[in-house]
Amino acid sequence: MIQVHVFSKGQEVRDVPVAELSEVRTEPRTLVWVDLVSATPEELAAMGEEFHVHELALASCAARSKQRPRIEEFEGQVLLIAYASKPVAEGQPVDLHELDLIAGQNFLLTFHGGAPIDAAEVARRITARPELAKQGSGFLLYVVLDELVDTFFPTLDRIGERIEDVEETVFEATAGDAQSEIFALRRDLVAIRRVVGPMRDAMIVLLRRDLGLFTRESQRYLQDIYDHMIRIVESVEDYQDLAAGALEASLAVVSNRVGTVARNLGAYAAIFAVVTMISGVYGMNFQHMPELAWRYGYGWALGLMVVTASGLWIYFKRKGWL
């Protein structure tokens, strides 16, 4: 599906045929944005013909497998592979959606599989700043990337809340159950880090190379995207440290509980060892054992067992072993 947005003189026109885009984008102070959702080979070919897109750039946009975020420069154009984060239900892994962008002097092509950005909001922001839209595709690229990058902040806020919940449950009786949640958090953080790290590097390349596509004012706005990427990367690193600390604390708690159980079992084993020793002594079948013929020998043996067991129990209780 193709959605065409043409911005001219502070107005948006959406009924421009695809076949006329090559002529429309030659008009002065006109900005063209084409948003393609699940583009077909025919639609990709049409974009290549109307905007003279390099075949390698089209091949990257047509790729079905997830690609590593990167930036590639072609003659008069730049290809940027980026990602957005979509909200998911509680307990579900983080959902990342690829967005491929091709920017030229006064046009922007976006390829994705299903609404990672709000096209209506992007169009509203562009029409609200016609003086910046007249400067070329730099401001449009900034708005799209800004909408894209902002999708990560709610996801990271949710991860932060999950980490706080895990930290509260680590020292509870069900601390062992927290480990599965910690591993799920770490998987989500690794998935986010794999895309935001290269996206940050791509923004560095975009800002440092003199591509001749964006004005100085547009580059200032793109610098704001880079600052946001730095914040996201730092948040991911901070949450990874917190998750690692929570995992270590959980393992320490479990280890301490295992040690406590082992200590309790050791104390009871010592008590029963003494009782067993006494019963073993009086269970021997030697002929000359005075207590065997004693009228109160049975009671004496039982009493000795009770006294020694009680004494050891009191001792271990005071030592904190029971």
Please provide a written account of the structure.
By secondary structure, the chain is α+β, with helices and mostly antiparallel strands. It folds into two domains: 252 residues, CorA soluble domain-like (Beta Polymerase, domain 2), CATH 3.30.460; 64 residues, Methane Monooxygenase Hydroxylase, Chain G, domain 1, CATH 1.20.58.340. The chain is 60% helix and 15% strand. It is built from ten helices and seven strands. The chain has a seven-stranded mixed beta sheet, with helices on both faces. A hairpin with a 2-residue loop joins β4 and β5. α8 packs antiparallel against α9 and α9 packs antiparallel against α10.
Would you summarize the structure shown here?
The protein has 322 residues and is α+β, with helices and mostly antiparallel strands. 60% of the residues lie in helices and 15% in strands. Strand 4 and strand 5 (77-86) form a beta hairpin.
List keywords for this structure.
15% strand, seven-stranded mixed sheet, 322 residues, rod-shaped, 2 domains, alpha+beta, 60% helix, Beta Polymerase, domain 2, Methane Monooxygenase Hydroxylase, Chain G, domain 1
Secondary structure layout plus pairing:
Elements lengths: L1 E7 L2 E3 L7 H4 L5 E8 L3 H11 L3 H8 L7 E5 L2 E10 L8 E9 L3 E6 L6 H10 L1 H4 L3 H14 L1 H18 L5 H34 L7 H67 L14 H22 L4
Parallel strand pairs: 3-7
Antiparallel strand pairs: 1-2, 1-3, 4-5, 5-6, 6-7
Helix pairs in contact: 2-3, 6-9, 7-8, 7-9, 8-9, 9-10
Number of strands: 7
Q: Give the number of domains.
A: 2
In the CATH hierarchy, the architecture of the largest domain is 2-Layer Sandwich
Q: Which H/E pattern describes the elements?
A: EEHEHHEEEEHHHHHHH
| SS-based class | alpha+beta
Shape: rod-shaped
CATH class of the largest domain: Alpha Beta
- Beta strand %: 5-15%
Query: What would you report as the Rg, rounded to the nearest angstrom?
Result: 35 Å
For the termini, the CA-CA separation is 71 Å
> Count of DSSP helices?
10
Name of the CATH superfamily of the largest domain:
CorA soluble domain-like
